[in-house]
Write a structure and sequence with these properties.
Oligomer: single chain
CATH topology of one domain: Rossmann fold
Bound molecules: NADP nicotinamide-adenine-dinucleotide phosphate
Order of helices and strands: EHEHEHEHEHEEHEHEEHHHHHH
Shape: globular
Largest sheet: 7 strands, parallel
Number of strands: 10
CATH class of one domain: Alpha Beta
Radius of gyration: 20 Å
Number of helices: 13
Length: about 350
Amino acid sequence: MYEVDTSTPVLVTGATGYVAGWIVKRLLEAGVTVHAAVRDPSNTKKYQHLDEIAASAPGTIKYFKADLLDEGAYAAAMAGCSIVFHTASPFVIEVKDPQRELVDPAKLGTRNVLAQAGGTPSVKRVVVTSSCAAVYGDNADLATTAGGVFTEDDWNTTSSLTHNPYSYSKTEAEKEAWKIADSQRQWELVTINPSLVMGPGLNPDATSESFNMIMQMGDGSQKRGAPDVGIGVVDVRDLAEAHLGAAYIPGVTGRHIISGHDTNLLEMAATLLPKYGNDYPIPRRALPKWLMWLVAPMVAPGISRRIVSRNFGYPWKGDNSKSIRVLGMKYRPLADTMNDFFQQMVDNGRFSNG
Ligand code: NAP
């Protein structure tokens, strides 16, 4: 459906991350020279997995030191690149200072990277890893959405520094990206808006919140039940394909919801029962909303009563038709994603009770 251009290097920001790992792998396998921007190149353990992939792939990887908050930090990494994949952004739910820990790196980081694109004439396309978190804030928002399904026309209007600050950081960052993109004509912006990403990571030590989600399904934290929350899920390997398509398919522009399944936490856990149900405390029922409302602030930092009220007991629906039509997305079955991810935790000895 498209040809990967191997004649010019590309930049991947946040190359040590969970999502970035599979993008870098796909690029290296296609023969691309990847400029990998990392915060701390002296911490080789964080990107050893990428070196191992590069060793047997036709592409080449080169590392560059860059922090999102250091103005001009991406100049050397971006020099000569035709495409920028901007994935770097903190994905954490429990924070003390949401402005400093989430919004600043997300928004100012996007400004920093995209300003550098403007100062780097070789850049023709920028692919920003945004999120469905920039499309909606709470599941309750679905009720006021045209057609009862979230689409690329929707924007998150209900998150703030005090309510779902991660979602707020992604919304502010994507808005900033479109503002900068619309003020120039040198490069095109494509945003990728994934729902919750699941599936095995190439970097077993990645800090992404996705790892906490799968861990909680097997470490006993949900043995009394799973939170009754509707959610969209996409496989991390499918998400890498979406990024490649966004970079190389001619004429692609705009936002793209990348989500394989409209599901919920209990349904996700149920896919694990046939293989792991006897050996691990996989949740088998949904926790009552009233109970969550009562205990959430004590037992789940980051989950306020307002979050419980506006999300628990509500379904989630996302329209992935543009991704299928424009990017040619094919989404793998949810059970494959969940079982491959869980097995990785088992293989890496992440569960003490297994
Ligand atoms: P991750 O594994 O934690 O990756 C985040 C990356 O951002 C890491 O490489 C991290 O570098 C880098 N980073 C954070 N702060 C930085 C800073 N100040 N300067 C430079 N780099 C910084 O999380 P992920 O799940 O792969 O997330 C990647 C992207 O996907 C994010 O934009 C996230 O919002 C988006 N996304 C993720 C999901 C999901 O479910 N996982 C869903 C939708 C969207 P270090 O290794 O140095 O910390």
